[in-house]
Amino acid sequence: MNSRERYTTIFLADQIKPTRFFLLKRAATKKFAPNLFTGFGGKVENGETRKQGAYRELEEETGLTNIKLTEFGRLIINQEKILYQFFGTYLGEPLFCNEGQVETEK
Fold first, then answer.
1. 1 pLDDT exceeds 50?
2. Domain ranges across the chain
3. Would you tell me how many other CB atoms lie within 10 Å of the CB of residue 89?
4. CA-CA distances (angstroms) from residue 52 to 7, 49, 71?
5. Are 27 and 34 in contact (CB under 8 A)?
6. What's the DSSP call for residue 97?
7. Contact, 54 vs 42, CB < 8 A?
8. Domain 5-105 adopts which CATH fold?
9. Segment 29-75, tens digit of pLDDT
């Protein structure tokens, strides 16, 4: 498993039983998933745990540092990549991301 590229995706909602989700609509200029809705996240760097990578990516993309993240899933893609999925709650507004436009869905 160490030879696989590792990525994180972070999904934010307003509470444990969500009434609102915060999704990223990726910019049209992005190579991966342009104009599509995703969570926040990216590649886990060498020397990082998957959770450290998730926190770093969330801070880089949104500036958020006080969010508790819980891993809830893993997805193996073509036996070459593994995607770790995290969930966190966020109560503040507005939320901005340097990767695209954040939209709130109810």
1. no
2. 5-105
3. 14
4. 11, 5, 12
5. yes
6. B
7. no
8. Nucleoside Triphosphate Pyrophosphohydrolase (3.90.79)
9. 988 889 999 999 999 999 999 999 999 999 999 999 999 999 999 99
